[in-house]
Amino acid sequence: MEPPHGVSLFAWVKQELLDSIARGEFTPDHPFVTQREIVERFGVSTTTAIRALNELVTDGVVVRRRGRGTFVAPRPALVRPAAGAGSTIAYVSPDESSGHESVLLAGLSAECGELGHRVAVEHTSSIEHEAQVLRALGMGARPVEGIVFFPRERSVAAGVVEELRRAGRPVVLVDRYFSGTPTDAVLFDDEAVGYDVTVAMIERGHTNLAVLWSEVEVTSVRDRLAGHRRALREHGLPELPEWSALRTYTGLGQDVRQDRLLDWLGAATRPTALIGGNAPTVALVVDDLLALRTGFPGSLEIASMDLSLTFDSASPLSIVAAGLPTRVMGREAARLVADRLGGDTSPPRHVVLPAEVRVADRGRNTLGVIGAAT
């Protein structure tokens, strides 16, 4: 086995493990695959295996039990009780699995269970399919009572969401929102996230900061960029479009990505720190830097605008990351849908969740982490 073109070994191994869990190959009652088994199964280094396991632990997908090993975290059952036991709330999200969505769904499922509601999960494969799924769930022959919706990048489902809302079918967006359509939504304070992470790096002595993105046509990313720009302005630093433009990094081939890094780091005026719009982007940046054809060009610090990251201590990079309350997002979305089902007819509202930032810096040549529990 080998990763698809342009996908890092770390990201590939993690995704393969997530897919195995989704297929039911591992259960909470039996030990999860070990570090050595990952090395043998995928033909990767011990460092890559450790990183994959550590991030699955951080994401809440697996748990370590002292003296017993690693296990898949118990997930609230997506049960379908007898009719009349409660409403069915559908969770609609892109079909690309991620630790972020796993934690969000765990929070949603837990809260729905406590409120007496069932959860049904539906994944979308394209923006066209997304609209079809929403219509089928909300206006089909057997509609669900409410929907929690994680829109795809460049989603065109705003009109369908408005139709459902007018028909009395509550829809709550998570992680992002539609700029031109009033909807209920549970969001991170993304503008503050972009601002706080940038300020943290400035306070570490950086004046040349570059930002790399994965998705670009989503409100969460645009808000994070706005916060980044505000931090630069308030600290009297120029914004260089070459270092912050909304263009994808993760969607490029490895050679193109590395050429961009080499162009930046080899210039007379070069970034001393790179900020990733999210954790997967940072993971890919680190892999690309460590595999540069010309070797790693000097000191550099890395920051992420979401999720705590764990990297091998032998890395020459200092890692800074900001965590987000993902599980809380799922719980708040469930509560908001339940409020609507209970008769709340107030105007659509946004629940905005702050990110708690902590610093555990052990020096510039080891791992420094700014993070928060999810």
What's the short version?
The protein is 39% helix and 17% strand. It has helices at residues 9-22, 35-42, 46-58, 99-115, 127-139, 158-166, 190-203, 219-234, 254-265, 279-290, 326-341; strands at residues 62-65, 69-72, 88-94, 118-124, 146-149, 171-174, 184-188, 209-212, 273-276, 301-304, 318-321, 350-353, 358-361, 368-371. Helix 6 (158-166) links the parallel strand 5 (146-149) and strand 6.
Distinctive features:
374 residues; alpha/beta; Arc Repressor Mutant, subunit A; Rossmann fold; 3 domains; four-stranded parallel beta sheet; 14 strands; disordered C terminus
Describe this structure in words.
The protein is α/β, with parallel strands linked by helices. The chain has 3 domains: 9-72, Arc Repressor Mutant, subunit A (Orthogonal Bundle), CATH 1.10.10; 88-187 and 326-353, Rossmann fold; 190-324 and 357-371, 3-Layer(aba) Sandwich (Rossmann fold). The chain has 11 helices and 14 strands. A hairpin with a 3-residue loop joins strand 1 (62-65) and strand 2 (69-72). Helix 1 crosses helix 3 (46-58), helix 4 (99-115) packs parallel to helix 11 and helix 7 (190-203) packs parallel to helix 8.
Structural Rg: 21 Å
What's the CATH class label of the largest domain?
Alpha Beta
**Which CATH-level-2 architecture of the largest domain?**
3-Layer(aba) Sandwich
Q: Indicate the structural class.
A: alpha/beta
Share of residues in strands: 15-25%
Number of helices: 11
